[in-house]
Every structure is written in C-alpha cells, then in structure tokens.
Amino acid sequence: MASFKLNLRAAALIGSLLIGASPALAEAVLHRGNAGEPQTLDQHHTSINIEAFILKDLYEGLTIYDASAKIVPGVAETWELSDDGTVYTFKLRADAKWSDGSPVTAEDFVFSFRRVEDPKTAAGYANILFPIKNAEKVNKGELPTDQLGIKAIDEKTVEITLERPTPFFLELLAHQTALPVSKASVEKNGADFVKPGVMVSNGAFTLSAHVPNDSLTVVKNANYWDAANVKLDKVIFYPIDDQAASVRRFEAKEMDLVYNFSADQIERLRTSYSDQVHVSPSLATYYYAFDTRQEPYNDVRVRQALSMAVDRDFLAKEIYAGSQLPAYSMVPPGIDSYGEPSKAEFGTLSQLDREDKAIALMKEAGYGEGGKPLDIELRYNTNPNHERVATAVADMWKNTFGAKVSLVNLDVSSHYAYLQEGGKFNVARAGWQADYADAENFLALSVGSNKTFNYGHFENAEFDGLMKKSYDEQDPAARSKLMHEAEALLMKEQPIAPLLTQADLWLVASRVKGWEDNAPNEHLSKFLSIAE
Prior knowledge:
The structure is a single chain. This protein is of the alpha+beta class. The protein contains 16 helices and 19 strands. The protein has helices at residues 2-21, 49-58, 106-117, 135-139, 169-172, 183-189, 243-251, 266-273, 300-308, 312-319, 351-365, 384-401, 412-420, 440-443, 461-472, 476-493, and strands at residues 29-33, 63-65, 71-73, 76-81, 87-92, 150-154, 157-161, 205-211, 215-220, 234-238, 257-259, 277-290, 325-326, 375-381, 404-410, 427-433, 496-508, 512-513, 529-530.
C-alpha cells in the first residue's frame, strides 16, 4: 500500500510538472510574410525569390547557404574537384531521405538535372545550369538528355562534368532550379507532384497545406537527415503583397517576418521597433526594361533619353528613404571578382544636364514636344514602393518630354509571367537579385538567346559576342575585362535602365532567433527558431 501511495504522489507530481511545462512543449510555429503568391512549386519552373524561400524549405540541393549565406554541404556531405576544375564528384549523405522514407539517390539528381534541361520541360531557368557539359545543347534539342554531363557512379555518388572551369558552380547548385525532385514521385504523379498530400520532398520541411492567396503551410520533416537540429515544427507563409496589411499583421504579432515593407515607413518603424527593422544591402538591381521589338523603344536615342530623364537621387532619397542607392550600371557594386561596374556615361552629369541632353536626343529621334507624341504604358508589379517609383517617373517623363504615361499593375506572379512569356509592353519594372556573386549573372539577362529574362528582347551581336568570349576565357582578369566591355555597351544601348541598387527590407520579430542579414538574401527556416 505504501508503495502504491508513493506511486500516486509521483504520478501527481509528474502530472503537475507536465502541466506547468506545457507552454514549453507548445508547437513552435513561424509566421512568415512572403510578399506574393508563388507562380509554381515546381522547382524547374521557378523564377522569383518568393518561390525560392518556400522551395528551399521543402527541398535541399547538393549545396545550401547557411544562415550567413556561406556555401556549405547540403545533401552532398563532401565533394572533390578534378585538377583541371571541370569534374565534381559529390558523395551524398548516407542518411539523406525523401519525406516518404525512401533514400535520396544519385539517380534522383541525374533525373532532376536532365528534367531541367529537357526542352519539353521548358524550364525558364535552365540556363543557370549551362556550365554543365552539353547542357545548352540538350536544352536546345541538339542532343538527347542522356548526353548531359551528369552521371550516377553509384547510389550515393554523383559526378558532374562542366564545359569549362566555373568558379561559382557550387553557388549555382544552391539555387532553387538545382533542387532535386523525387524521380519516383514525378514518374508516378506527373504535374500533381507539387500538391499537398502528394509532394515528396527532401528538405527540412514538407508541404502540409496550400490555400492560394491565403497561406501555405510546411511542417517539420521527420525523415530529414538533420531533423534533430530543426527547431521549428511548422512554418506558415502568407502571400501578402499589400505591404500596409503586412506591417499591421506584424504589429499585431500575427506575423514574425515581413519581407519588403513600404520604405516610407522605415523611420516610424525604427522608432517603434528598433532593431526589429532590418535594412540589408543586397546584390540586387531595380531597373526598367524597354520593349525593343516596337517603336519608339527600338531607337537607342529614345531609350537613352527616357533613362537620362529619371532622377535616381530623388527615387533613392525621397521614395526609399535612403535605403536604396542610385544606379547607373546593371551590375551592382560589391562583387569582388568584377570590381567597379561599367556605368552609363551620363551618370557623371548633373540631373539638369542630363535632362537637357535627353530633350535633345528625343527631339533628334522625332518624338516629344514638337514631334510625334509619346504615349507610354508603364507596367509594374503591385507594391506601394513600385507604385510610387512609377508615379514619380511618369511625372519626370511628362515634365521633360510632355509624355502621356499610363500605369498598369499586376500581382507579382502575373507581372513576371507576362514578361517571361513574351508579352508586349512599352516599359516594365523589373528587379534582379544575384543568384551567385558574379557579374555574369546580371549581364546574361540581356543576351539575345535568353528568352526568359531578356524581357525587352534586346538583340546585339557585339554584346552577345563579348559575353561568349567571357565564357571561354580562363584568365580571371581577362574575363572581367570582357564583361566590363559588355556592360559598357549595354549601358550605351540602354535596353534596360538601371535605377537603384537595392537593399532588402525585413521586419524580424524579436522572438525570432538565428536570423542573419546577408547580401544574397538567403534565409532558410531550418536555421531559425522561436523564443517565447
């Protein structure tokens, strides 16, 4: 009897301890604002960062970015590089599994990379893996997919052969396009492999639910090789492109992270939330693209004039409260291997001198006051900052040339889908954040063969030739020189008008731990935790 009473007391004590500890045992949920609805959850059709944030929580590539955006091992535990810099041999983790418990194999990566380059897939970002031997030829349909330079040596060894040494190749492998798909799942489910309840993933989280334009929920993947170190049980992404609504939800403690809040709120938010406001310098360029397929934007004089008339200092200081910098080059500063970018020559002139030169160029082209009327449609993705920039630029063009400017906005997914699918336009807002820290990543956007991201369909044989030479050049200094020449030509032709070098604006609740600002804007949820 005494023993029984003691056990009852012990049970009561344990029960009270469990009740008292229940808050600590509560589910760890991160509420993450994501600035827009993803176009796709198929990594081989992805193109924008709001998709990457989700996909990199669901899947893991051979390499990943850690919290500080340093390249570290992902599925590949180790790798070796041949002496000539063209053959990588990756050893996959023995305990790397898909969320259904099956092993992640070398064949999954072979299947995935072939799927990216298969022209039938029509992957918009297929070019990011063009450093792989035969990738471009496979993607153009000139060679079968089995000629792609990737093979499975054994179940856990992947060998990738490159066309030429590519110093940033490990960074390319951390891009969302290089995330693997489960061969078994894709072959069984086809296009439905992306759906909740169907998706098989190998990242720190699995897809639990997706209510378009409302929320997307991922939960901890018990089969992830590093699950013991994943602190979050669940991440809920909110695709809210209404920045004011996002801030209100942050202030109401309904969201822990807000991406791209309205820049005119920086000072107010800093006053109220201090170090929860993050302005992080980024390798990113905010620019306007001109559709060079139609008049008058096929005239370099018109493009130059429109670009010159934009007061970038006003945009940076008045609209972005100093959180962005005026840009006169497509490549942002801060890329060590490139050095100082090649800027547009008019960048050295005062704004008044630019405007005088712009008026003369426009008159010479036969447009504007005294010439053909300028009726410009300016497209941008829905966002208060982008709307304010577009409104300001419209006023600048009206005051300088007497232009009539109409504004058209779409949600971020629809805006970029329209541009990538070749829709015609006059002028369109776009932004580019580095996929890897190399000038080529920015300059390749304007190569004639880039059908996805060359929104204005710019064609220039000299520019394309310089870029081709840069791909074949092994000497880093000579390669950099070729790209500088290419950028100088691009800035003379102005098929795109760089406006701002961007910073990433985040609100990060004080209860979020493990967050680190970084230029590539990489923030995997696996490195974050919640402190109540």
